Automatic annotation (TrEMBL):
Family: In the N-terminal section; belongs to the aspartokinase family.
Coiled coil spans: none
Family annotation (Gene3D superfamilies): Acetylglutamate kinase-like (3.40.1160.10), Aspartokinase, catalytic domain (1.20.120.1320), Dihydrodipicolinate Reductase, domain 2 (3.30.360.10), NAD(P)-binding Rossmann-like Domain (3.40.50.720), VC0802-like (3.30.2130.10)
Protein name from the UniProt record: Bifunctional aspartokinase I/homoserine dehydrogenase I
Protein's organism: Sporocytophaga myxococcoides
Keyword entries, A-Z: Amino-acid biosynthesis, ATP-binding, Kinase, Lysine biosynthesis, Metal-binding, Methionine biosynthesis, Multifunctional enzyme, NAD, NADP, Nucleotide-binding, Oxidoreductase, Sodium, Threonine biosynthesis, Transferase
Catalytic activities: L-aspartate + ATP = 4-phospho-L-aspartate + ADP; L-homoserine + NAD(+) = L-aspartate 4-semialdehyde + NADH + H(+); L-homoserine + NADP(+) = L-aspartate 4-semialdehyde + NADPH + H(+)
Gene Ontology terms: biological process: homoserine biosynthetic process; lysine biosynthetic process via diaminopimelate; methionine biosynthetic process; threonine biosynthetic process
Domain of life of the source: Bacteria
Length: 821
């Protein structure tokens, strides 16, 4: 004999009821003996609670809700039941609805709703659904009898979550089943007192009904049929990557459900456990799938833990004061006073100093719990030895569960590292002494991020997800998106890295989508669905999505974006950027940003600030951290100026060379923005700061090579006219250098803590002498590289190489995360 139970979704529509009966028929075919417990149709219990509350508030809307409850059932009957017997079944449902209506009318008149009446109202859900399914079972060839569990399950008077009298109940069940050979279709969830008052077993209690029946009858197995593939590593509605656990122990299932895994109602496990009856959790909508097997044995799997559970809403109550220290009996009084009033304490922590005790309860009971405690400790509070209890709301609990946690070191470390890396603040910690679970209290707004990052750390230890936001979709930004799109499948396959682009924005529009933006048509999507771009709104949205492993990419050259860096890093989001403004602004701002990143353990990466994709900043860092001493840095840090001076050979005119550079698209629209050396000055400043010098941009000595009239020219055309007139100034410097066998190079230098940018003559022994084209070149002279400098050379500009540099840094963040968790 098996006891099966089908949940609300399984009997939620006529179609799903057909699926249920197909499953039952297949059992009959196998000659399997069984009886079945049913829940109310999905949503009905909630609606019944709502309708009774409305009636008690004298709100006439209750009629409409009642009507919709009626319609849902009548429609199911019409769809399932043969026309010949339909009127009988409809009549029975109408009769129940009338009874319910009378009851609600009473509530409406009295303006009062007792827990006793609520239990009676909600009982109609299971009574109607079970009746309909039992009729359909009969019609489908199953020899069935409707059974109202109120006749069998005897409880006390604790309406809402009644306590079962097992002795009486077991006797009733045994006798009932002895007297009949028919398949029983039993109402879940409902029960009654000895006096015949209707009670319920607590929300989700149909599972419990099945287990109580199974235990009383010594069933071979109990099967709980629901809408997911068994007990999973986490709630699949909250964690996309959750997967089914093939087998878990009763205790593990108990812990999972106690900490919020609604898939099984916690008390269900006890009766089955006592009688060692295994429970299967199976999916009505995927019946071929094996599901989860719950038994006394735990089965080792490849993971450190079995699952992650959460309770979305809890309140934390803390009691503290010197009067608690070393005083025996404080916790006994505290929890005793709560237990007397049946307040369920979900989690307790006490600091070892005994100065404070913290515990979690359901929010709806928090106020009352605090009152009870304040009453219990009234004397101590008056004597100022203990403070009034403090209640905090909007908190959640996350717990990791598994029997293998026992004796396995490092689990807590992994748990906290995963939360810490994602900036999830932990308010309280509790570990059961059984070491079966480790639970923390966190802010409710962090719940989804915490669940997903923990799931990734414990179950998908190889796959990393990065959630990326890109602001600035000009050449670099759009090239980056193209590169990411092209590489995504390879990254997933070879590096087990998944990059989700969650947000994009240009100066006009922004688009954020938690599920990721399809990169095939980001342009069209941004155009169509994007809203007006405002940087502060973008940041707020990014923060409120609160996704794990978030990375913000700034590929603008805007100051407006930089102003948000500190805030972004403070919310534990890493930043990757080719934008130089943050690192070349005021030193104090630069330092604030650097320390925000450090403090929150996130990355602030800007390799592309200098030399685009060339490994300049990382090389400098490596030299520094490996103990080398930087003596001198010299660099040709502008591709434009590199081209101009490498091309400005004998026989050429300076103005012509600049013109050629402009025509080739190498210069800024106004070439003076290159020739004034400011861009190069910012780059050497960034390198100087990286080498630990606290310089400001004003400390960089910049030679302005342009003669006065060129600088003053009002238009670009006028500038070229003036430049032509001044060609001699440049030719003279070049020829002077040439006489000594030297060439002109526009060089940024850092030496003895001083930075300068100037046009210099260098001889054949200098590494920059033979530079050609528009390459960048950086030479580090250090204690270790003293005789010949360490030289880095290559293209130092261009969207492809810059975007690739940004991309590489995004990928490097995934390695960093992996090394921690
Ligand atoms: P039923 O109506 O069949 O009793 P419930 O809604 O009570 O179904 O429970 C099933 C739901 O439990 C799933 O849809 C899922 O969202 C939720 N759930 C929470 N945690 C887990 C978990 N670890 N594994 C599977 N489901 C879970
Ligand atoms: N119908 C009840 C509820 O929604 C019992 C159950 O579904 O298990 O809580
Ligand atoms: Mg349930």
């Amino acid at each position: 004999m098996k006891i099966l139970k089908f949940g609300g979704t399984s009997v939620g529509t006529a179609d799903s009821i057909r699926k249920v009966v197909d499953i039952l028929l297949s059992y009959k075919k196998k000659k399997q003996e069984f009886s079945v417990v049913f829940s109310a149709m999905s949503g009905i219990t909630n609606q019944l609670i709502e309708v009774s509350k409305k009636a008690a508030e004298s709100n006439e809307d209750y009629h409409a809700i009642l009507k919709s409850i009626e319609n849902k059932h009548i429609n199911a009957v019409k769809s399932l039941i043969d026309i010949k017997v339909q009127s009988k079944v409809v009549a029975h449902i109408k009769m129940l609805i009338n009874e319910l209506e009378d009851l609600l009318h009473g509530v409406f008149l009295l303006k009062e709703l007792s827990p006793r009446t609520t239990d009676l109202v909600v009982s109609f859900g299971e009574r109607m659904s079970t009746y309909i399914v039992s009729e359909f079972m009969k019609q489908s060839g199953l020899d069935t009898e409707f059974c109202d569990a109120r006749k069998l399950i005897v409880t006390d008077h604790s309406f809402g979550a009644a306590i079962i009298d097992f002795k009486a109940t077991d006797k009733n069940i045994k006798e009932h089943f002895k007297a009949t050979k028919k398949i029983q279709a039993i109402t879940g969830f409902i029960s009654s007192t000895v006096k015949g008052e209707t009670t319920t077993l607590g929300r989700g209690g149909s599972d419990y009904t099945a287990s109580v029946l199974g235990a009383a009858l010594g069933a071979e197995e109990i099967e709980i049929w629901t809408d997911v593939d068994g007990v999973m590593t986490a709630d699949p509605k909250k964690v996309k990557g959750a997967f089914t656990l093939p087998a878990i122990s009763y205790v593990e299932a108990m812990e999972m459900s106690h900490f919020g895994a609604k898939v099984i109602y916690p008390p269900t496990l006890q009766p089955a456990f006592n009688k060692k009856i295994p429970i299967w959790i199976k999916n009505t909508f995927n019946p071929e799938f094996e599901g989860t097997y719950i038994s006394a044995k735990t089965k080792a799997n490849d993971f450190l833990i079995k699952g992650i559970s959460s309770i979305r809403e809890i309140a934390l109550i803390s009691l503290q004061g010197s009067g608690m220290m070393g005083v025996p009996g404080v916790s006994a009084r505290l929890f005793g006073s709560l237990a007397k009033k049946k307040i369920n304490v979900i989690l307790i922590t006490q600091a070892s100093s005994e100065y404070s005790i913290c515990f979690a309860v359901e929010p709806k009971e928090a106020e009352y719990a605090a009152e009870l405690i304040n009453e219990e400790f009234a004397n101590e509070i008056q004597a100022k030895k203990i403070d009034n209890a403090i209640v905090e709301y909007d908190l959640s609990i996350v717990a990791i569960i598994g029997e293998n946690m026992r004796n396995t070191p490092g689990i807590a470390g992994k748990f906290f590292a995963s939360l810490g890396k994602n900036g999830v603040n932990i308010r309280a910690i509790a570990q059961g002494s059984s070491e079966l679970n480790l639970s923390v209290v966190i802010g409710e707004h962090d719940l989804s991020k915490a669940l997903n990052s923990l799931h990734e750390s414990f179950f998908l230890s190889d796959i990393r997800t990065l959630n990326v936001f890109v602001v600035g979709l000009g050449l670099i930004g759009s090239t980056l998106l193209k590169q990411i799109q092209k590489q995504s499948s390879q990254l997933l396959k070879e590096r087990l890295l998944k990059i989700n682009i969650i947000g994009i924005a240009n100066s006009k529009k922004m688009l954020l989508d938690e599920n990721g933006i399809n990169l095939k048509d980001w342009n069209g999507k941004l155009e169509k669905d994007g809203e007006k771009m405002k940087m502060s709104v973008f940041v707020e949205k990014m923060k409120s999505l609160n996704l794990q492993n978030s990375v913000f990419v700034d590929s603008t050259s805007s100051k407006d974006v930089v102003e948000h860096y500190e805030d972004i890093l403070n919310t534990s989001i890493s930043i990757v950027t080719p934008n130089k403004l943050a690192n070349s602004g005021l030193y104090k701002d630069y330092q604030k940003i650097q320390s925000a990143a450090f403090k929150h353990g996130v990355k602030f990466l800007y390799e592309t600030n200098v030399g685009a994709g060339l490994p300049v900043i990382n090389t400098l860092k490596d030299l520094k951290y490996s103990g080398d001493k930087i003596l001198k840095i010299e660099g040709i840090l502008s591709g434009t100026l590199s081209f101009i001076f490498n091309t400005f050979k004998e026989g050429t005119k300076f103005s012509e060379v600049v013109k050629e550079a402009k025509e080739k698209g190498y210069t800024e629209p106004d070439p003076r923005d290159d020739l004034n050396g400011m861009d190069v000055a910012r780059k050497i400043l960034i390198l100087a700061r990286e080498a630990n010098y606290t310089l400001e941009i004003g400390d960089v000595n910049v030679e302005n090579i342009l003669p006065e009239p060129c600088r003053k020219a009002k238009t670009i055309e006028d500038f070229f006219v003036q430049l032509e007139k001044n060609n001699d100034v440049f030719s003279a410097r070049r020829d002077e250098a040439a006489k000594k066998g030297n060439v002109l190079r526009f060089i940024a230098t850092l030496e003895n803590g001083k930075a300068r940018v100037s046009l210099e003559a260098v001889g054949p022994a200098h590494p920059f002498y033979s530079l050609s084209g528009s390459d960048n070149m950086i030479a580090f002279t250090t204690e270790r590289y003293k005789d010949r400098p360490l030289v880095i050379k290559g293209p130092g500009a261009g969207a492809e190489v810059t975007a690739a540099g940004v991309f590489a840094e995004i990928i490097s963040i995934s390695n960093y995360l992996k090394s921690f968790i």
